[in-house]
Amino acid sequence: QKEVEQNSGPLSVPEGAIASLNCTYSDRGSQSFFWYRQYSGKSPELIMFIYSNGDKEDGRFTAQLNKASQYVSLLIRDSQPSDSATYLCAVNDYKLSFGAGTTVTVRA
Amino acid sequence: DTAVSQTPKYLVTQMGNDKSIKCEQNLGHDTMYWYKQDSKKFLKIMFSYNNKELIINETVPNRFSPKSPDKAHLNLHINSLELGDSAVYFCASSQGTGYNSPLHFGNGTRLTVT
Predict the structure, then answer these.
(1) Taking the CB of residue B27, how many other CB atoms lie within 10 A of it?
(2) Which residue of A69, A90, B29, B55 pairs with A34 in a disulfide if CB–CB is 3.0 to 4.6 A?
(3) What are the backbone angles phi and psi of residue B16, rounded to the nearest 5°?
(4) Are strands A11-14 and A102-107 parallel, antiparallel or unpaired?
(5) Of B78, B25, B72, which is closest to residue B52 (Cα–Cα)?
(6) Mean per-residue pLDDT for B1-13?
(7) What's the alpha-carbon Rg for chain B, to the nearest Å?
(8) CB contact under 8 A, A92 and B104
(9) B43 to chain A: which residues are within 8 Å by CB?
């Protein structure tokens, strides 16, 4: 079983819609969770991190964490064409492990 | 004022050669990493150093040898390059090794082995 799994996508959403990205992880002891955005040909950049169960909002982004279900998600509200990128879920136990990423395309 | 910088950006070489990638960070972070991103975009950790000490060494062929002369630098030397080594290699740094330390990535080095 992979340590971090994401819905493979690609995910295509119309401009202004909500994009929903999901991630599950295998290590129940994981304590911190990160979402990175990676544009094609660029390096990953941190969007959000979450440590506690529940929701965390930052602008148009909301991260949701459910440790009992070993599940973390990212919602992008009012999606813009500039949000088109690959989104990487990362989970920290003794190292930061990444999922394979979900590619999002926002249609204008 | 680049935070994490890697050189070179592109590296094209033939099988069997030896090459090095250099990384420097000016964030004052204690921990540095090498990640490999393959053609399917999967990012996998290779090594991590904390204050010049190796703390993570994943299952990587011993043709790969990291070196950290000080906590601001982490270099990667690769011997006897193989076709399967073609990938993008990212250097990253973080403040400490704690669970709450996000990574800051360099711009990557695209290695192509022919």
Answers:
(1) 12
(2) A90
(3) 90, -15
(4) parallel
(5) B72
(6) 92
(7) 13
(8) no
(9) 44, 88, 98
Chain A nearest C-alpha distance from B43 (Å): 6
Sign of the four-CA dihedral A25, A30, A34, A38: negative
Q: Is the peptide bond before B61 cis (omega within 30 degrees of 0)?
A: no
Closest residue on chain B to A98 (Cα): B43
At A92, is the pLDDT very low, low, confident or very high (cuts 50, 70, 90)?
confident
Read off the pLDDT band of B99 (50, 70, 90): low
Tokens of B85: 């080594």
Give me the half-sphere count of Cα atoms (radius 13 Å) on the Cβ side of residue B18.
6
- A98/B42 CB distance under 8 A: yes
Q: Give the pair of three-digit tokens for residue A39.
A: 């544009």
pLDDT-derived band of residue B98, with 50, 70 and 90 as boundaries? low
